[in-house]
Design a protein that fits this description.
The complex is a heterotrimer of chains A (about 300), B (about 525) and C (about 230). Chain A contains 10 helices and 14 strands.
């Protein structure tokens, strides 16, 4: 049976009267690299902070490595690595002093050699002050600090935020190498779908605080499809097909975004609606995510009005 | 859902206390500001009544100082403003006949002076020297000096209640206490609970001599001679006021006619049992004057003493009106004050001669009328009281409780911070007025409506209702500041509910789960 | 080891402030004492101010400031100032630099983190102000320098000012940890600290001062601990 290292049950958070996270039920198994996706303001950072005990849930609970997230013990925290959003570190420290500070909390686990190797790999020096580092370099130091204690569970909140493409590539390559080698469980949130695609094997999508998808990457990729159905005359007003999340009308065609709809159902509908033909459109993960999380019948900016 | 910390049992009451104290002060400041503003902009001062010449003259004579000549003759001395340093004086006899007019320095009459207080430092002053504030933190140092330098410094040790001597050339000298000079600390005797002291430099010395009064003794301390003389002891009754005249350089007026001719050094002390103890010199003499009990000291009745070569005299000012009740904050005192200002009163000044046995014989007496306060000035006072009652509507009922406690004991017993708090409570209490009760009821109602959907427990709910009832506006603001949590509408009953509990406090239904989306991809692990 | 690492980090962060405060007190205090010693000797050499045959009217003629009165004024300002600076550095700055998340994820309890900050603050006060004040007091006790040595009360009063600095520190911490608006209850801790300072400075009875300080510290410390343990970051 797969061991669950991270589990939430009905996790809910209100900020004042505003609902930020709504009854989130999530399970992350051991060894999984889980991409945590959502639009701006969806509640990703709120969830991560509740998992780490930085925020108190309004309702529900979460467990990390078998321990209640609201009362994480120091011994459990030692097994969890955390990369904060924006890689906020003590600016007055230099890397060497920061290492010494971090090391004090992991006396038995700290892998100094590994940390030194990572710093060297990223082209940094232990004498450099944090305030003199760029965003990318700070991200690298954060990753090194989080990985050097060999945590079982690594939680990263938008680790590539603000990094350019080259630094992002370097960061991810380093991350892939180390994570897959060690067999850690990772939960990381990101806006960059390309990064998620490269690294994650599981996706969790949250929209307006509500969990919308919890599946493998492959399942996500195969479930969301776009098909264009052509008609001889005007397209029918009603679309009698299960799983339609978006429908854009052309003069004699319908562009349908479908979730979880099989080929047979599509074919049956085309026949029923007297379509002349239907074509599948290749869409990447980013487009799939946008279509999946966009509100129904939303109007795209600067586009002609849908008829 | 909240994390339970044991510290909460201390932190929560601490938070309530802190918030309440700050808000009580804030509300009090607002009330005082409102009262001052109303007094400035709303209350009109009573119009000054036009007086005839005869009335003006009568008023001048009424306000004139009553002075006695050494032979007992009374004069009325009227001066222009400022009263303590007039440029022009007029002297009238007891019948109102003008005897003389001119600048005070040229006045041809020498009136009897009276022993007065010459305190350098009282009990409060000595304590203020010990205040923790850096500006107040000072030492009492008595020098022993020559014309050219200071040889010794005698510093008062408040804790030990004695003086410690140091030579300015270096070195420790010894101690001076109630038993005199002592070489070591173990030998020195404290003076006793301090009340006040006066100081002067003798004519042949640059070093001050002290008259040091404690609760039951009076000492004269000469640091130059290292002598302590006990002038008076009153073991049974606490010593109160101290007056001096020509005692060393104390109580010596500077007049053109000279200062020391015809007067004997006099030291007067009143004890708590109402007796006056007189110490005289030239020759040395001790007298005790026991006045009739009905001649008690209150603001209306004053006594003074003087010792001349021709005898010892006492002056008595008094009002033909019963003395006030014991405690000024009681209803009885308010009624007394009402009667006092509304009626005409007769005021008297009398001169007595004190014989060697301490008995008094009347020499001269004079009386005059003090008119009742005019209606307009009374109305002005009533207006102010009405405004005070209006602003006190927001005060806590708790102040009434403090005031009620204070009425059980005389106000004079409450000294220091406790006394100040009770006097503040007395001035700001709502007095259970209709407005105050109405405001309290409204605020308690608002608290009820606000707390009901947010309540955690019945105990807390009831506590806050009682709290707001007791502390009125400050209590309500405290409740509001500490309990203003968000609410949402319950999806089941539609009423407001707090978010601190999973279930609605009214219908018990939990927070609703979101509707599953048509296209959710929940494919599990 | 973890606790020490935290304390070391907090101390290092407030090092400039504690050095500045300590140096200011040392230099100003030493200069004032040296000046006071010379001034007193000069004054004693002069003829006295009291004339023969005259009454003493004003107590001012017979009182003088304590030997450590000048340095005490500095300490009375420096201690609350240091408390404010340390409170801002320990509790407000992490809000702006957003390093709370990193710090709170250390493998220690929240209470340990808070205690480390408070321990660092106490150490800062003791080292930078307490030790300096005690040194100044020791110098003021020297009989070869001062005719009348300083009294023990002066030493105690200085430490009272240092305790007031701690009160301000806790009040600043409480204000930083509060989630209320600044114009509502957020500044109440500082207002209480101000009120307590005014009341303490007007007292002469050291026992009463001790009670007031203990009460104020208890009120502020308990709230600070509860706020820190329950606060959301």
């Amino acid at each position: 049976m797969t061991e669950i290292v991270l589990e939430t049950t009905g996790l809910t958070k209100y900020y004042g009267g505003r609902l930020a996270v709504d009854h989130l039920d999530l399970k992350v198994p051991r060894g999984c690299i889980c991409g945590f996706l959502g639009r701006n303001g969806a509640g990703k950072t709120t969830v991560i902070k509740m998992l780490l005990g930085l925020l108190e849930p309004t309702a529900g609970s979460a467990r990390l490595l078998g321990c209640d997230a609201a009362a994480l013990t120091p011994s459990v925290r030692q097994r969890i690595g955390y990369v904060t959003e924006g890689h906020r570190l003590f600016r007055w420290m230099h890397i060497g002093r920061l290492e010494a500070f971090q090391k004090a909390f992991y006396p038995k686990q700290w892998d100094g050699r590994f940390f030194a190797d990572m710093i060297e790999y990223f082209g940094l020096s232990t004498k450099q002050k944090i305030k003199d580092l760029s965003n990318g370099q700070r991200a690298q130091v954060s990753l090194a600090l989080a990985l050097a204690p060999n945590p079982e569970l690594l939680i990263m909140d938008d680790p590539t935020l603000g990094l350019d493409a080259a630094i992002r590539r370097q960061f991810l390559e380093g991350m892939i190498e180390l994570i897959t080698r060690q067999g850690r469980t990772v939960l990381f949130s990101s806006h960059i779908l390309g990064d998620v695609e490269r690294v994650a094997d599981r996706l969790v999508v949250i929209d307006k605080g509500v969990l919308r998808a919890d599946c493998s990457l492959e399942q996500f990729r195969t479930s969301i499809r776009k098909v264009v159905v052509h008609f001889e005359h005007a397209a029918p007003a009603e679309v009698g097909l299960e799983g339609v999340v978006h429908c854009r009308r052309g003069e004699k065609q319908l562009e349908l975004t479908l979730v979880g709809t099989g080929d047979a159902e599509i074919a049956a509908y085309a026949g029923q609606a007297a379509a002349t033909r239907y074509d599948f459109v290749e869409i990447n993960l980013e487009d799939q995510f946008i279509e999946f999380t966009a509100p129904p019948n939303h109007r795209r900016l600067f586009q002609w009005e849908e008829k | 859902m909240r994390m339970r910390n044991p510290i909460r049992y201390v932190a929560t009451p601490a938070r309530v206390f802190m918030t309440l104290v700050v808000l009580l002060i804030a509300v009090a400041i607002c009330q005082l500001f409102a009262l001052e503003s109303a007094q400035t902009f709303v209350v009109k001062a009573p119009a000054q009544e036009e007086l005839t010449e005869e009335q003006e003259r009568a008023e001048k004579l009424r306000l004139a100082a009553r002075e006695f000549l050494p032979d007992g003759t009374l004069h009325l001395v009227a001066g222009d403003e400022p009263r303590d340093l007039p440029a022009h004086e007029e002297v009238y006899d007891a019948n109102g006949t003008l005897l003389w007019a001119g600048p005070p320095k040229q006045r041809p009459y020498q009136y009897l002076p009276w022993a007065a207080e010459e305190t350098v430092l009282s009990e409060g002053g000595i304590k203020s020297l010990e205040e923790v504030s850096p500006g107040s933190f000072r030492t009492l140092d008595l020098p022993v000096a020559t014309a050219t330098q200071t040889r010794e410094i005698w510093r008062y040790c408040h804790r030990g209640d004695y003086f410690v001597g140091y030579a300015t050339a270096g070195g420790h000298i010894g101690y001076v206490g109630g038993g005199g000079f002592a070489a070591s600390q173990s030998q020195v005797r404290p003076f006793g609970p301090f009340r006040r002291f006066a100081a002067w430099c003798p004519t042949d010395s640059y070093s001050p001599t002290l008259v040091w009064q404690t609760r039951s003794r009076i000492y004269q301390i000469d640091f130059e001679q290292r002598q302590v003389e006990q002038l008076m002891v009153s073991p049974d009754s606490e010593l109160e006021c101290l007056y001096v005249h020509h005692w060393g350089a104390l109580g010596v007026e500077e007049t053109e006619a000279g200062t020391r001719e015809g007067y004997r050094p006099l030291l007067v002390c009143r004890s708590a049992d109402g007796k006056y103890h007189l110490l005289l010199k030239d020759p040395d003499q001790k007298l005790t004057v026991a006045l009739p009990q009905e001649w008690e000291q209150w603001l209306g009745n004053l006594h003074g003493f003087i010792a001349t070569a021709k005898g010892v005299f006492m002056r008595r000012f008094w009002v033909e009106y019963p003395a006030p009740p014991d405690h000024y904050a009681t209803r009885a005192y308010r009624l007394w004050l009402d009667g006092y200002i509304k009626e005409d009163r007769t005021r008297r000044v009398e001169l007595y001669r004190v014989n060697d046995r301490g008995d008094i014989d009347l020499v001269n007496s004079y009386s005059w009328q003090i008119p009742a306060r005019t209606l307009s000035s009374l109305a002005w006072g009533r207006q102010y009281e009405a405004m005070q009652r209006a602003t006190n509507v927001a005060s806590p009922v708790f102040y009434d409780f403090l005031w009620w406690l204070g009425t059980f004991r005389p106000a004079v017993v409450y000294r220091g911070v406790v006394g100040q708090l009770i006097r503040l409570a007395e001035g700001m209490r709502p007095g259970l007025s209709v407005g105050s009760l109405l405001l309290t009821a409204v605020l308690v109602g608002l608290t009820f409506l606000h707390a009901r959907p947010r309540r955690r427990s019945t105990r807390a709910f009831v506590f806050w209702l009682v709290f707001v009832g007791l502390f009125n506006l400050a209590g309500f603001l405290t409740y509001w500041a500490l309990n203003h949590t968000a609410t949402i509408k319950c999806s089941s009953c539609g009423k407001l509910r707090g978010l601190h509990q999973c279930d609605c406090v009214r219908c018990g239904v939990a927070l609703p789960r979101p509707e599953p989306g048509r296209c959710d991809l929940m494919l599990g692990v | 080891m973890r606790f020490l690492a935290l304390v070391r980090k907090e101390l290092r962060e407030c090092l400039p402030w504690l050095l500045l405060a300590g140096l200011l007190l040392l230099v100003a205090g030493a200069w004032m004492l040296r000046y006071e010693a010379e001034y007193v000797q000069e004054k004693l050499a002069q003829p006295p101010r009291l004339a023969p045959g005259s009454a003493v009217i004003h107590a001012y003629r017979l009182t003088r400031p304590h030997l450590l009165g000048g340095p005490a004024k500095w300490l009375c300002v420096l201690a609350p100032g240091l408390g404010l600076a340390l409170g801002i550095r320990h509790f407000w700055m992490p809000l702006y630099t957003r390093t709370w998340s990193f710090l709170l994820h250390r493998s220690v309890s929240r209470l340990t983190i808070l205690l480390a900050k408070c321990a660092a603050a106490v150490a800062a006060f003791v080292v930078s102000l307490g030790v300096v004040w005690t040194v100044l007091y020791w110098y003021a006790r020297r009989p070869d320098v001062f005719v009348i040595p300083a009294s023990a009360r002066e030493l105690v009063v200085g430490w009272i000012y240092i305790a007031l600095g701690l009160v301000v520190y806790l009040a600043t911490a409480l204000s930083a940890l509060s989630t209320a608006r600044w114009y509502t209850t957020r500044i109440f801790g500082l207002l209480l600290a101000g009120l307590a300072t005014i009341i303490v400075l007007s007292q002469w009875n050291l026992g009463r001062v001790a009670v007031l300080l203990v009460l104020t510290l208890l009120v502020l410390a308990s709230q600070t601990v509860a706020a820190f343990l329950d606060r959301e970051f």
